[in-house]
Amino acid sequence: MKKAFVIAAAVLLIVSLSSCSGGSSGPVSSGGEESPSSSQSASIGDPSQPEASAQPEIPAQNGDVSINLPGDFFESDPDFDPSAYAQKQGFIGAAVNEDGSVTVTMTKERQQELLTDLREEIENAFEELAGGSATPYVTNITCDENFTHIVMEVEREAYEAAADMTPVTLGFSAMLYQKFSGQEPHCNITVKDAATGEAITNAVYPDAIGR
């Protein structure tokens, strides 16, 4: 998956979840077993269980995956062509539903490609945030394998003095991965004092959106 697709998908999730004021962005269903994924440098808590959701309007064939994407993502393209979009992204197909959402269907292999590349992008972003020039107060970021719990360790004084939006970035990154893996987007973000281990803030996404 190209990096441009990851960025576009992140925008999709931000727009859709923000417009829902903390609600989930749409149903996701997958055929076969859940795609495997490697764990990050630390495991924190248990992965959340996906919630039951309605079937998308394009049923997945045996072994294929269907994902429902919010219509908000495609509003900027008045000439949106689902067939061309599916071909460009390497999907089996795409169709616009009555509510304006778009259901895309892909093979499990294509889903795994997306998840592998997406995980790599997220892990690289975590590494850049920890001690990066824009966030020097962030000392370490760890998470469980499904991005349901992320812990960001910081230098407390510098963190509290900054207008920091890193937890929001972490939350959307996690929910993006979960969306394409077939989970219901849900991530607990804990910010801790690196020196004492004390929790500074805690937020659950998407519940925290719009507050």
TrEMBL record:
Keyword tags: Signal
Region (Disordered): 20-73
UniProt-listed PROSITE patterns: PROKAR_LIPOPROTEIN
Feature: compositional bias, Low complexity: 20-48
Cleaved signal peptide residues: 1-21
Domain of life: Bacteria
Name of protein: GerMN domain-containing protein
Protein species of origin: [Clostridium] leptum DSM 753
